[in-house]
Design goal:
Structural class: alpha+beta
Shape: globular
Distance between the termini: 55 Å
Helix content: 25-40%
Radius of gyration: 25 Å
């Protein structure tokens, strides 16, 4: 469709430019989305209203699941070189007690200014063959069942763009969200924050995030690359945003002996707790701050947006490249809505704990001491802060979304669908391969390996198989984003996997044209409906097989 009836400034018909995916917003989330698609061979186009790239540190704490995304995007090594690893958190309670919590390699975040994150993502995007179109503001969005049409004003005037899919990453004040008629549900956080960065002198342990939880309020004191320190705290109305005001915070709420040596930045900012009512309208998807926003405590904001990208990019890329049915896209909204609402609830609790009055603060400190003494602070709270405990409803398998967070059943040795893959499982290669990975577990001469291999042979291009030798018997079907699509310990549970794959596979009768192979002049065409499930093949038991080499499961 090249003539959409729009007219140019001279009264003629404007010819629309075509792209499989249009991304609006070139912050870190939009850049990551574009890069993830280009690495799958999908040439996404990205527009940005601002004239220049983002400046300033902004969101600096990148948690471990986000660093896995960086590895898949090919920027982790450079991020590590320019960032600072945090090895522990210290919680300083009133009365002089300090709870020093070692995070462990699985939970250690990286402190990296957002400006650097954007630089790394954009450089990688340019290496992939794309560029950000700056000074280009979207003014109108419309869509039908076949495509999205966007009108934008750029340096060369008005441009019309037709896209198969639209990804909205234009921030918390998203104008496109409003055009799509999506409510941004929530309220303003009733706390004003001070944020300062620079040089602080005094006796403190570097390479850590320090939470000072005193009787007079709290203050966060975080190490950053280059020997700089970030200081943040909730402050009352009218508080002075000056070096003297920052020094006063350190004196009243922090330890003795800290002094401001020089500040590069002092800002006041507020925050909101809001989640979009919907994350998808037709062919348009919301990601990042356009989809959700919350209190800055815990450093979750950018991480949450990048996880949106991690969830959506493999699904959208698979649909466009013809390896997945459009039905897979139906899972994005319920999965990421649940994740966003959970994070907003958690950060709300963090804020309440952080801003307690003197009497309640004493109760909090007692409770935290008990958590530390029992080991729960390290085993439960640290993974929660890192983002490992976010779980999805099992909508990918066809189940209805249920409200609230799904908990792991007691006594279960393998995580169910919607939970993250266990830490002991070796990661899949960062690039290439089939959309799903089936990992079977058991002895070298047992039936799970044979059953898994047979499944992979019946689903070429859709399923890769790997067998781990160990005492436990069972299987895990893994998604590209590190979540479990299905799992179990019996042949009956494994027999359900072909039906799930058939639901998510493109129909063989549908015409498909990959953007990777055909170029930008042709439009990818995939069937709008998933295939019917393949006939069920009965398997009453694991069949024994000859010994084959394999890796060992813990």
């Amino acid at each position: 469709m090249s003539d959409n009836g729009n007219t140019d400034e001279h009264g003629g018909t404007a010819m629309a430019e075509r792209t499989p995916v249009l991304i609006v917003g070139a912050g870190p989330v939009g850049l990551a989305m574009a890069l993830a698609l280009w690495r799958q061979g999908v040439p996404a186009r990205i527009l940005e209203a601002a004239e220049e790239p983002q400046h300033g540190s902004r969101a600096v704490q990148l948690h471990a699941p986000t660093l896995q995304i960086f590895e898949r995007l090919g920027i982790l090594d450079e991020a590590e070189r320019r960032g600072l690893r945090v090895h522990h958190n210290s919680y300083h309670l009133s009365g002089g007690r300090t709870l020093r919590v070692e995070l462990g390699s699985r939970n250690e975040p990286l402190m990296l200014p957002q400006q650097v994150t954007c630089e790394l993502l954009e450089a990688a995007l340019e290496r992939a063959g794309a560029r950000v179109e700056r000074s280009t503001r979207v003014t109108e969005v419309s869509q039908d069942e076949r495509l999205v049409t966007v009108k934008a004003e750029g340096p060369d005037g008005t441009v019309l763009i037709e896209a198969d899919w639209l990804v909205v990453a234009d921030g918390v004040r998203s104008s496109i969200r409003d055009q799509l008629g999506i409510d941004f549900v929530g309220e303003q956080v009733p706390v004003n924050f001070l944020l300062a960065e620079g040089r602080i002198d005094g006796p403190f342990e570097p390479g850590a995030v320090h939470y000072f939880l005193g009787k007079n309020g709290g203050v966060v004191f975080a190490s950053m690359p280059g020997g700089r320190i970030r200081v943040s705290a909730g402050v009352p109305e009218g508080y002075p945003f000056t070096p003297e005001g920052v020094q006063r915070l350190l004196d009243e709420r922090g330890p003795r002996g800290l002094s401001v040596a020089g500040l590069d930045m002092i800002n006041s900012f507020g925050s909101q707790e809001r989640v979009a009512e919907r994350l998808r309208v037709g062919r348009a998807f919301l990601v990042g701050d356009a989809a959700h926003t919350h209190s800055p405590l815990g450093g979750q904001g950018l991480n949450l947006g990048l996880q949106d990208v991690h969830n959506l990019s493999w699904k959208l890329g698979g649909v466009i490249n013809g390896t997945l049915s459009p039905a897979v896209l139906d899972s994005y909204q319920p999965e990421r809505l649940q994740a966003a609402r959970e994070i907003v609830r958690n950060t709300h609790r963090f804020l309440k704990v952080f801003t307690l009055g003197p009497a309640a603060a004493r109760v909090r400190n007692t409770a935290w001491s008990a958590l530390e003494a029992t080991g729960l602070l390290r085993r439960w709270f640290v993974p929660l802060l890192a983002g490992w405990r976010v779980a999805y409803p099992d909508v990918l398998g066809g189940a209805a979304a249920a409200p609230g967070r799904r908990t792991l059943p007691a006594g279960r040795t393998l995580p169910p669908a919607g939970h993250r893959a266990p830490a002991w499982l070796p990661q899949a290669p960062a690039a290439g391969g089939a959309p799903f990975r089936l990992v079977t577990l058991g002895t070298a001469d047992g039936g799970p390996e044979q059953a898994g291999q047979a499944l992979a042979e019946r689903h070429p291009g859709m399923l890769a198989h790997d067998h781990l030798i160990g005492r436990r018997t069972g299987f895990l079907l893994l998604r590209p984003d590190g979540y479990v699509a299905a799992g179990g310990t019996t042949p009956a549970e494994l027999a359900r996997v072909p039906r799930l794959l058939a639901r998510l596979a493109p129909c063989r009768t549908a015409r498909t044209t990959s953007w990777r192979s055909s170029g930008l002049r042709r439009r990818s065409r995939t069937g709008g409906e998933p295939c019917r499930p393949a006939p069920r093949r009965s398997r009453n038991r694991w069949r024994p097989q000859r010994r084959r080499p394999g890796r060992t499961a813990r």
